[in-house]
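On clarity, I found the account of how folds are encoded harder to follow than it need be. Since the whole study asks how a given chain folds, the encoding of that fold should be made plain. The format is easy to grasp once an entry is in front of the reader. For illustration, here is how one protein appears when written out as sequence plus structure tokens.
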Amino acid sequence: PPEIRAATRARTRSGPAPVTDVAKLCVCDLLVAQCDVNCCCDPDCNAADFSLFTTCSVPIVTGDSRLCSQKAAIYSLDVEANPPERIFKLIDQVNPSVFCIHATNYKQALSFSSPEMPTSENFDQLLKRFSSATFSAEPDSWNMNTDAQNPSDANETYRYEYGVPIQTADAFLRLPSPVVSSWCSDANPAGFLVNQATKCTRSVSVENCGNIQAVSMLFYINSSILAVNITVQSIVVQSLNGMRTLLNGSDVLRLPMILDELCINIVLGVSYHITYTGAGEIIEAAASFVLGAINKEALSIQQSFEISFTQVNTKPVPLSGNPGYVVGLPIRAGFRPQGYPFPIEIFFVALNTNKYSQLTILQSTSNQDCLAAQGARTPILFGYNMISGCKLRITAAMKCKPLTQTLLDLLKGQSFPEYVASFGNSQSQDVLDWVPITHLHTSEQRIYNTFQSSCHIPVSLEIEVKWTKYGSLVNPQARIVNVTASITTTILKQLPSRRERTIPITSSVVFTDISSPAEPGYKAWPTINAKLPFDFFFPFV
């Protein structure tokens, strides 16, 4: 009937505007503030980048495919142009299906909300609300002005995904870094869960130090991360000769000022520490400062910046990369909790010799005495082949079983890990990100000793770490796929009395790259099929 159609059209018009802008969606935009190869929708790419593309990896971007009518962003390349250009079109796409959504006018269906769990306090209220035959979750009114911000939403926190720039009240959280040269650029955004450490040079002078925003504490704490204010955690003052002093009070804002031909309280370093929840909400932000002074001879200063992240109610564990391992950082290891038939969760065990649950080997000492080197361990650093050892002096008073156990503890440590993290940022709850250590045993030549029966003693531990390049060819990440620990034993036989013998005990680590080569015909970088003029290199051959 006409009145029903009119009511339906009125109801459709009363709904809010679509919340998805397909022109701003880009699923292939993986790198922060960098152009992704063949990603035609990447806002970080310019015309020069597009001219090197060979194809558009994502040719069409749409919103919800269940809508009857929606916008679609079409991306393509005009290869006939010189240089090639990107073509962008925004069209209206019609869904031919009869069963489609005409309008997304139910605001609560646009996101998933956690249901309210019944408790002893709210049980009667929930029973009264949902016990009837029918109930409605329809909002009482629609907000027609989609551009106006609801005051109640001003204090809501933003849920971040990995790598997304951290928003502030005015723009984003800045982490200055060098771009082309060593000079600082304040346009580098801090990405969520991306641990960064940068150093750059800033031009300063005593006469204008009070007017340079980037050397003032206020420049780094003035903006809040949405509803979270940046607090000052600590302030360290550095003198002209490099001596540092920690101030007792950190609630005092120290601004640059000129004192006796010196400019004091200028920022030399900032370290941000962000606390977040498992849902990606930032709940706390703190900044630690290093302040210094310059004299009239100084024309520039070197500033250092750092940002780290810690999940709430968790103990911070040092990472060895994010996500892939970084060469020179320790390999992270863990243990399976007792009582589980399979690894449901891996806990980090903090030992006196292994504070951060790292894979370690025997540390060589100056006297090379194995019995005196017990407990000395050094972490295995990713990418570094290592070898260490000591010498064992066998006497007639030594017994086989205690000697064997002593050498095992010497080679493997008091508690050898069971698992190794495949990535530098693997979390303990992600079971599939942990690689079990495979143990092998071999035997070698015989050595005479004072034991009546044959005695097997371990003399070497060889650890082989196999890793591969994972992810994009442009930015590959190091991933550990296999770890093998091989114990080599020696059989000791009878030795004449009052005789001694010295044998070497060694530990070694070898890293093996097992990455597969690129497939034949695959081009990692776009190429241009062009012929140079015959005299291009004249007068050189």
Summary: Residues 128 and 134 are 12 Å apart (CA to CA). Residues 164-317 form one domain.
